[in-house]
Amino acid sequence: MPRIKDQAICIRLIDFSESSQVVALLTEQHGLVRGLAKGSKRMSPGSVARFSGGIELLTLGQIVATTRPSRDLATLTEWDLQEPYWHLHEDLDALHLAMYAADAAHAMLAEHDPHPEVFTALGALFERLENREGRDMALLCYQWSLLDACGYRPQLEEDVVTNEPLEKRSSYHFDPHLGGFAAEGGAAPDSAWGVRRATLEQLQAVAAGDENGSQEAVRRANRLLCAYLRALLDRQLPTMARVLNQG
Length: 247
Known about the structure:
Blueprint: E1 3-15, E2 21-27, E3 31-37, H1 45-50, E4 51-52, E5 60-66, E6 74-83, H2 92-108, H3 116-128, H4 135-149, E7 171-175, E8 180-183, E9 193-196, H5 197-207, H6 215-233, H7 241-244
Helix pairs in contact: 2-3, 2-4, 3-4, 4-6, 5-6
């Protein structure tokens, strides 16, 4: 039975019984891991020692687990809480954004497909959500990292319809099926979305590592990437509403 020891963020949590939990963990080196934590809710000395700090949603810990090819769920044998991210549970807006980020990772990533950069980006987002003023930019950086890691980085420099360099215009079309921008008035399909030039420029800045930008441009860029994720998944996650409906 392969043994896993890794850093993990709990992104899904379901009570399985009075004493056990089913968890989905985003690990640093092993990707998405779903597992059964037997006895994680017991208060016996042995269980408290094995599941130190208790397993809670949107927390960071070190895990030990075993996997079997014949089983869908790994067996989680140890959990050592390292970062509870208390601020996420004390601020409803921060909690909503963290839940969306966790749900997006859960939906986009395949099991046991390592993406250390997504693990790092999710942890960084959780930390940055403590600062209310920087939340929108923190979310934009995370969404960009997730799409990039999954192979869906939007094309920002070339027209996805003509394959020519994008001309400077006041607005563009974004085609979620082609994964990028096209000049407005071109041969963009009916499914394309109208996008302002400032939104494209904001994404270009984030892609270059520049986190400057107006709140309006950042929020528009967040809505665009969230809608792109929705199109890729072919469904809307319930937690997407906070991003899609923000002013």
